Every structure is written in structure tokens, then in C-alpha cells.
Amino acid sequence: MRLEGRTAVVTGGSHGFGLAVATALAAEGADLMICARGEEALETARASLSAHVQPGRRVMSTVVDVSRPEDSERLVSATYDAFGSLDVLVNNAGVYGPMGLLEEVDWDEWVRAIEINLMGTVLPCRAALPLMKKAGRGKIINLSGGGATAPLPRISAYAASKAAVVRLTETLAEEVRANGIDVNAV
Predict the structure, then answer these.
(1) Residue 135 to residues 9, 70, 86, 116, 156: CA-CA distances in angstroms?
(2) Among residues 7, 123, 152, 158, which one is catalytic?
(3) 158 catalytic per annotation
(4) Tell me: the pLDDT tens digits for 13-30?
(5) Is the pLDDT of residue 69 over 80?
(6) Alpha carbon 38 to chain centroid distance?
(7) 121 to each of 29, 55, 57, 71, 177, how far by Cα in Å?
(8) What is the DSSP string of 72-136?
(9) Which stretch of DSSP H or E encloses residue 23?
(10) What does DSSP say about strands 138-142 and 181-185: parallel, antiparallel, or unpaired?
(11) Does pTM surpass 0.90?
């Protein structure tokens, strides 16, 4: 129950690793806000998580596209309105993007992968930081995945965006250290 009385947001929380992270946070006593783009999968995940939360804790969900500034701001506002705080932000939402040679892949899909993976990490951080600074504490965990550790031919958008997430995380950690906010990449 290390997170009892804390509120956590998990982006991309409707399935896979995001759902596993949300389940672990629930087991530790956190109130949860999960988000994703797909309403049906999100509702299924919310219902499943509700069965795992500790008594008195809540799980809420909202459909957002974290690559859009207004959606990320709405996510943070909805979290604060529902729970009165935002203590932990897990930026998990991401896509592989187009697979193939750089000069041959669909360019719009390539750019969209950068928007989702990089901007979809930057924007929730940007929206959450004022609340965390006001509270004098917070934890941000950005998922970088294998794209940041080695070259990944034929998935250049994923690799480039995830490497950028690592440098963003390192830079942001230095910016907010004095505010009691920890920022890490996994």
C-alpha cells in the first residue's frame, strides 16, 4: 500500500504494458486515471482494474489522444477534478509506426508516430507539471522501450522518437529536480 492516497495517470492504459502498470499501481493503493484512444478497450480495462483496487480507491478512464495539447490538458484536468491531485504520471502510450525503409514508408504515418511517441510524452508532462510543482512533489515515468537502446532498421520513426524520449526525460529531470519531482525513463 505504498501509494495509498496517491493518484496515478497511465497513458495507453487500456492494454499490454500500460494495463500491467495500472494493475500494479492499483495493487499498491493508488487511485487511477487511465487513458487511451479506443473507448471500448478503455472501458474494458477500467472495469477489470476496478476489481483490483483496494477498498476506497477508484479507477476512472477517459478517451484522449495524448499527442494533442487540448486532450492532454483535459486528461490532467479530469484527473485533478476527480481526485484532487496528480502524483504519478506514467507516459506509456506509443506506436511502432510504419515499418520499412525510410525513403519508402508513408511519410504521414512516420510523422504521426513521432507525434504519438514524442509529443504524446511531452504534452502530458507539460500539462501535469504545474500541479506537481504546486504540490512540491511528483513522479513521471516515460517509457522509451528498445527504440532508444540500439539501431532499429525499418522502424526509424519508433527508434528516433524513443531516443528523443530518453533525452527529453534526462533534460526534464534536471529542470524539475528542485521542485521535488522525479523524472525517469524505462
Answers:
(1) 16, 23, 9, 28, 38
(2) 158
(3) yes
(4) 999 999 999 999 999 999
(5) yes
(6) 15
(7) 25, 31, 26, 12, 18
(8) HHHHHHHHHHHHS---EEEE--------S-TTTS-HHHHHHHHIIIIIHHHHHHHHHHHHHHHHT
(9) helix 16-27
(10) parallel
(11) yes
